[in-house]
Design goal:
Shape: elongated
Helix content: 40-55%
CATH topology of the largest domain: Rossmann fold
InterPro entries: aa-tRNA-synth_I_CS (IPR001412), aa-tRNA-synth_Ic (IPR002305), Rossmann-like_a/b/a_fold (IPR014729), S4_RNA-bd (IPR002942), S4_RNA-bd_sf (IPR036986), SYY-like_C (IPR054608), Tyr-tRNA-ligase (IPR002307), Tyr-tRNA-ligase_bac-type (IPR024088)
Domain RNA-binding S4: 379-440
Structural class: alpha/beta
Binding site for L-tyrosine: 62, 197, 201
Catalytic activity: tRNA(Tyr) + L-tyrosine + ATP = L-tyrosyl-tRNA(Tyr) + AMP + diphosphate + H(+)
Radius of gyration: 26 Å
Number of strands: 14
EC number: 6.1.1.1
CATH class of the largest domain: Alpha Beta
C-alpha cells in the first residue's frame, strides 16, 4: 500500500519528455572548470596542470569498471557522465572493463569478496562493455575504445609480474590504503589476492600509458589509493608524470551510499531496475541533495540549474527540480520513449491518465511499487481491499464502496459484490484505490 503519493506535483497531468542536449556548458572556459562547478573533483593530482592539460590538445584518459555484477549501477553512471564530458571536450576515452581485476575484486573494508567463476566474469565483461558503449560515442573524431585488462595480464608469468611491476611497490605504502588498513585491523584480515589488487590496477594504467599514451585516470574518491598506485608506478617505471581525478562519493542525506537501499543497487540494466523504478527513484530525491544531483548526473547548463535551485527554495512543494532530474537521467539511461512510458505510468497510477494504455511491462513495474496481492479473476473486491491493507475489515470495505471511495483501474466501484472479472488489464493486472491517496496492486497472473 502506498499512501500520500497521489499529492505529488507532476502526477496530476500528463507531460512530455523534453531533455537537454548532450553537450558541454559553453559558459565555462574549460571542461576542467565545468567539472569543478559540477562537484566532480573531490581530489586530484596537480589541479593547475590538469586544467592546462584538459584545456589544450586532446589527451587520452580512462576509467575502469569491474564485472562484479551483470550490470553497472549509479556509482558507475557518475563516472560515465564525467567520461562523456571529457569526450565532448575532444579528449580520447578508453573504457576499461576488468576481465582480470574482476576475477579478484577490489578489497571491501568489511570482508573478503566471493570469487566468481571465470565463465561468469567473462559473460559479465560482455554485458558491461555493451553498457559502456551506450554512454560514450563510438564514432567521430575521438571515439571511445574498449579495452580489457585480461588481454595483458593473462599472458604475463608470475615471475615477470613480480620483476616488472611488483618491484616498484612498497608494502608499507600498500598497507596504508584505507580498505587494506581496515581489513588488516579486522579478525578476518585480507588475502594476498585482494591485497594485490592495487598492483593490478596500477599495471593497467602503465599498460595504457605505454600503448595509448594515456595520461589521465578517473574514478571514485574511494579508489584514490588505486588511482595513485598507477601514477606512482608510471613515475617509477617510465619517469613520467600523469594525472588522476577522484570524484566525490555521493551520499543520501542520512549518509548512506547513494543509489543503495537495504543493499540493493539501482542498476542501469532495465531488467534489473525498470525505467519506471529509476524514474521514481530520482523523483523521490530529497531537496537537500537534488541540486547537486542535477549538477552531477545531467547535462543541464548552469543557468537552468540555477533556476531549478531557486525553485527548490521558493516552491519546494512543486518538486520541479526532482521532475526535471528524473526525466533527464532516466532518458539518458533508457531513452526518451521508455521515460515517457514511465511518466505516463506515474500519471495514470495516481489518477491522471489511462492505465489501459500502458504497456504490460511498464504497468507491471508500476504496480510492483505498491503493496501487491495475488488473486484469481473471480476474487471479490471486498476481500482484496482487506488483503491489500486498504481497509481493516470487510465491513469497512463495504462502507468505503457505499461512500464512493473505491475504484479499480481508476473506475469507481458501486457494487460491493463486484469481482475482478472483466477488469484486469492485459488479462492480469489491476490497481485498487481507496480515496485519493491510498493504492494497492493486484497481480492475477
Amino acid at each position: 500500500m502506498i499512501s500520500g503519493i497521489a499529492d505529488r506535483p507532476g502526477t496530476d497531468t500528463l507531460e512530455h519528455v523534453q531533455t537537454a542536449p548532450i553537450q558541454l556548458d559553453t559558459s565555462f572556459e574549460t571542461v576542467w572548470d565545468e567539472l569543478v562547478y559540477r562537484g566532480s573533483v573531490h581530489v586530484s593530482t596537480d589541479a593547475d596542470a590538469l586544467r592546462t592539460a584538459l584545456g589544450g590538445e586532446p589527451i587520452t584518459f580512462y576509467c575502469g569498471f569491474d564485472p562484479t555484477a551483470p550490470s553497472l549501477h549509479l556509482g558507475n553512471l557518475a563516472q560515465l557522465v564525467v567520461m562523456r564530458r571529457l569526450q565532448l571536450a575532444g579528449h580520447h576515452p578508453l573504457g576499461l572493463v576488468g576481465g582480470s581485476t574482476g576475477l579478484i575484486g577490489d578489497p571491501k573494508p568489511t570482508s573478503e569478496r566471493q570469487l566468481n567463476a571465470r565463465e561468469t566474469v567473462a559473460e559479465w565483461v560482455s554485458y558491461l562493455q555493451g553498457q559502456v558503449s551506450r554512454f560514450l560515442a563510438t564514432d567521430g573524431d575521438n571515439p571511445m575504445r574498449l579495452v580489457n585488462n585480461l588481454d595483458w595480464t593473462a599472458p604475463l608469468s608470475t615471475v615477470d609480474f613480480l620483476r616488472e611491476v611488483g618491484k616498484h611497490f612498497r608494502v608499507g605504502t600498500m598497507l596504508k590504503k584505507d580498505a587494506v588498513a581496515a581489513r588488516m585491523d579486522s579478525d578476518e584480515g585480507i588475502s594476498y589476492a585482494e591485497f594485490s589488487y592495487q598492483v593490478l590496477q596500477g599495471m593497467d594504467y602503465l599498460e595504457l600509458f605505454r600503448t595509448y599514451g594515456c595520461t589521465l585516470q578517473t574514478g571514485g574518491s574511494d579508489q584514490w589509493g588505486n588511482l595513485t598506485a598507477g601514477t606512482e608506478l608510471i613515475r617509477k617505471a617510465e619517469g613520467a608524470h600523469v594525472h588522476a581525478i577522484g570524484t566525490p562519493l555521493i551520499t543520501e542525506p542520512d549518509g548512506r551510499k547513494f543509489g543503495k537501499s537495504e543493499g540493493n543497487a539501482v542498476w542501469l540494466d532495465a531488467n534489473l531496475t525498470t525505467p519506471y523504478a529509476m524514474y521514481q527513484f530520482w523523483l523521490n530525491q530529497d531537496d537537500a541533495i537534488v541540486v547537486q544531483l542535477l549538477k552531477s548526473f545531467t547535462f543541464l547548463p548552469k543557468e537552468r540549474i540555477d533556476e531549478l535551485e531557486a525553485a527548490v527554495a521558493d516552491a519546494p512543494f512543486r518538486r520541479e527540480a526532482q521532475k526535471v532530474l528524473a526525466a533527464e537521467v532516466t532518458a539518458y539511461v533508457h531513452g526518451e520513449s521508455a521515460t515517457q512510458q514511465a511518466m505516463d505510468a506515474s500519471a495514470a497510477l495516481f489518477g491522471s491518465g489511462d492505465l489501459a494504455a500502458l504497456e504490460a511491462g511498464t504497468l507491471q513495474a508500476a504496480i510492483s511499487s505498491l503493496e501487491l496481492v495475488t488473486a484469481t479473476p473471480d476474487a471479490p473486491l471486498l476481500q482484496l481491499l482487506q488483503e491489500s491493507g486498504l481497509v481493516d475489515s470487510l465491513s469497512e470495505a463495504r462502507r468505503a464502496i457505499a461512500q464512493g471511495g473505491v475504484s479499480v483501474n481508476n473506475v469507481r466501484i458501486d457494487d460491493e459484490a463486484a469481482t475482478l472479472e472483466g477488469r484486469l488489464l492485459h488479462g492480469r493486472f489491476a490497481v485498487l484505490r481507496r480515496g485519493k491517496k491510498t493504492l494497492a496492486g493486484v497481480d492475477a497472473g
